[in-house]
Design a protein that fits this description.
The relative contact order is 0.13. This protein starts with a strand and ends in a 19-residue tail after the last helix. The longest helix is centred in the first third of the chain and has 48 residues, at 151-198. It is built from 17 helices and 15 strands. The protein is an alpha/beta fold. Residues 553-569 have low confidence and may be disordered. Helix 4 packs across helix 10 (319-334) and helix 5 packs antiparallel against helix 9. Among the domains are: 177-334, no CATH class; 518-569. The strands form three sheets. It has a six-stranded antiparallel β-sheet, covered by helices on one side.
């Protein structure tokens, strides 16, 4: 239920705030005062398309905030749990003068699409433009399903239909693969044989790069090794010879001085290390001598690995696993016949289930149509359509869809003896609005949105018909929250509360004001709607009578001070 609406700088409204309550509320005021702007504001807050022209002249942006109270019974989108909507929902829309806009939900930025999805669960805005949706056969099918309580059956059929479409795609994919199987198997055999012959190893390319660099610098490494051997062992002043001489000198004196004996021991260990270093250098030198002819082999192996990796769009590190992947694909292709057979059987089963489900939906809709036709036709009698009727014509859709194979079209006869014709070809805007109201009254039942907005749906009617329309809106208000923009006193007098919208010129600018009326103010406002230019005591009395009768109240005082009855003259 809408609890609060705040507007800043929208069209002629600079600032407006409305606290809303359950039941039936009307917005009244002179033509052009800005009543429909409040409806427009709510549309924008719930995600409708924004336009830079909606921003008040001279301002940089418009700002609309709508607060809703969420009941546990309200159906919400699946993603609603991400926004803490357990009890309260604050929908905000900011529209900039350059045409761009941004929205938020409980303070979290969201897209306009999400605002629309949530708004559709909370608010139903009905006007002559909104009722144009009644002209589309898809909308008519949904209305009939809602009336017949077929939502669960449609959902089950939709799930079956979706599964069938997926099965059809699986079959098409498998059949296409089967047609390409022979060529693919030949290619896989070739690739697998190539990889098995190559036998790539994990980390091999890195090792080949290291060996390649070593062999490419062979001459430099041999020179360094020879120089080191000469310095350590092979010339007459080598480090090894010097260490041996020093050790021998200290050993001969070590019997007389323990410190010299320890030094001799350390020199002996150093000699061992030098010998180990010499042996290691000689081994490296021998390897380098023997590897002189291996550089070409290393380069060839490296290029072979890189070429295969490029062919398959993989890194060299992935090559060891690639052969296993190709073998798995080969096994999958070899078992394709069995999988295709199972997929085809699955598709046949789903085709039978879908056909059966569509037929069941059609029968259920035909049963629901009888009650729907009677309910809407009955409501039409009191909405200036005496003798009019609505019927449902069934046809078969060009192709089955998620809602079955039915094509539904509403036919109406607006006058007695008149042939029924499609709604789209014979109803005016006002008639569409009243037929839409009849559907709301007769068909929505338990799925009535928490808040319903009617924007001048009473256009083109008056007198007794207007009173019947007002009673219908009041009936909807007893089941939820109804807000109606109206010029008709017969409608306004039946509301639980009334908000007057007025336009004033101040400081060279135009502003729209809104205020909830007290009882005596309501009498004057309804009298204005009745009496035009001059409000007389008789007009005031008539207004008071209408208010008392419209809301089932007994006679009541005007609430005006004594002698004030003529004050409106």
């Amino acid at each position: 239920m809408l609890t609060h609406l705040a507007i800043r700088n929208l069209a002629v409204v600079d600032t407006a705030e409305l606290d809303m309550e359950p039941g039936f509320t009307v917005l009244t005021g002179e033509t052009g005062a800005g009543k429909s702007i409040l409806v427009e504001a709510l549309s924008l807050a719930t995600g409708e398309r924004a336009d830079s022209n909606q921003v008040r002249t001279g301002e940089t942006q418009a700002d609309i905030t709508a607060c809703f109270e969420i009941s546990p019974a309200t159906p919400l989108p699946s993603w609603a749990g991400d926004y803490d909507l357990a009890e309260e929902c604050i929908m905000r829309r900011v529209i900039r003068a350059d045409g761009r806009s941004r929205g938020s939900l409980n303070g979290v930025p969201v897209t306009a699409r999400r605002l629309r999805e949530l708004g559709a669960c909370l608010v139903d805005i009905c006007g002559q433009k909104a009722h144009q949706a009644l002209l589309h056969t898809g909308a008519q099918l949904r209305i009939l399903d809602e009336f017949g309580g077929l939502a669960e059956a449609v959902e089950e059929f939709s799930a079956c239909y979706t599964a069938l479409r997926e099965a059809e795609r699986d079959c098409e994919s498998l059949q296409q693969r089967a047609g390409e199987r022979a060529a693919r198997l030949d290619l896989l055999d070739s690739w697998i044989g190539e990889l098995e012959a190559l036998n790539p190893q994990a980390g091999e390319l890195e090792e080949l790069d290291r060996v390649r660099m070593r062999l490419a610098n062979r001459a430099r490494l041999l020179e360094a090794a020879a120089s080191a051997l000469d310095a350590l062992r092979e010339n007459e002043h080598s480090a090894g010879g010097a260490l041996a001489s020093a050790r021998q000198a200290l050993e001969s004196a070590g019997d007389f001085e323990p410190g010299l004996k320890e030094a001799a021991r350390l020199l002996s260990e150093s000699e061992v290390l030098v010998e180990e270093a010499v042996a290691s250098i000689r081994r490296v030198g021998m390897d380098l001598e023997e590897g002189e002819s291996n550089l070409d082999e290393v380069e060839q192996r490296r290029q072979a690995l890189l070429a295969v990796a490029r062919k398959h769009g993989r890194s060299q590190e992935e090559l060891p696993e690639l052969a296993a992947e190709l073998k798995a694909e080969k096994e999958s292709l070899q078992s394709l016949d069995d999988r295709l057979s199972r997929a085809l059987e699955r598709r046949r089963e789903l085709e039978r289930d879908t056909k059966k489900g569509a037929a069941g939906l059609s029968r259920a809709r035909e049963r629901a149509a009888k009650g729907f036709e009677q309910a809407i036709s009955d409501r039409m009698q009191g909405l200036a359509m005496e003798g009019g009727s609505l019927s449902v014509r069934f046809g078969e859709a060009k192709a089955p869809g998620r809602r079955g194979s039915d094509r539904v079209e509403f036919l109406v006869a607006l006058n007695p003896g008149q042939a029924a014709r499609p709604l789209a070809s014979c109803a005016s805007g006002g008639e569409l609005a009243r037929i839409g109201l009849a559907i709301q009254l007769a068909a929505v039942g338990a799925r009535q949105p928490p808040t319903m907005i009617f924007d001048e749906v009473d256009s083109g009617i008056g007198g007794r018909v207007a009173e019947v329309v007002g009673a219908g809106l009041a009936e909807l208000g007893e089941r939820g929250q109804v807000l109606c923009v109206t010029h008709l006193p017969q409608v306004a007098s039946q509301a639980d509360r009334q908000i007057r919208v007025s336009k004033v010129v101040r400081d060279g600018g135009t502003r729209t004001l809104s205020a909830q009326l007290k009882e005596n103010e309501r009498i004057r406002e309804v009298a204005r709607m009745l009496g035009g230019m001059e409000i007389t005591p008789r007009t005031l009395a008539h207004a008071e009578e209408m208010l008392a009768r419209g809301r089932g109240r007994g006679p009541a005082g005007t609430g005006l001070p004594a002698g004030a009855e003529g004050a409106g003259k």
